[in-house]
Amino acid sequence: ATHGFLGPLPIADPQSLNPACREDSVLLAAALENRTLWAEQMWDASAKSPVGLLTGTGVQFGNFDECLDVQQPLSSQYCLVTLVLDVPPGYDTLDPETERY
């Protein structure tokens, strides 16, 4: 089960409106399902949902070199994304259990 409000970062988008993106996503998803080496390497190089997101410390870059070095039937691309969340003041004190840590 996925916990948290973001869930895992998607590595593919089989529902994409872009035909090339959709085809590559279906290919990648099938290769991951079959545990194909290039697909596993691509997933391994990808950033995962970061920890510390609500406190502003969540940094996860993935692996630049591994991403671009993967030998696969589709081209990989390394992208950086800035995610800005509007977290209300005092959010970290809304749960009394957090005071125990």
UniProtKB/TrEMBL annotation:
Which Pfam family would be a valid example here? NRF
Q: Which InterPro entries match?
A: Nose-resist-to-fluoxetine_N (IPR006621)
Q: Which domain of life is it from?
A: Eukaryota
* Record domain Nose resistant-to-fluoxetine protein N-terminal: where: 21-79
Return the protein name. Nose resistant-to-fluoxetine protein N-terminal domain-containing protein
**Where does this protein come from, organism-wise?**
Cuerna arida
Phylogenetic lineage: Eukaryota, Metazoa, Ecdysozoa, Arthropoda, Hexapoda
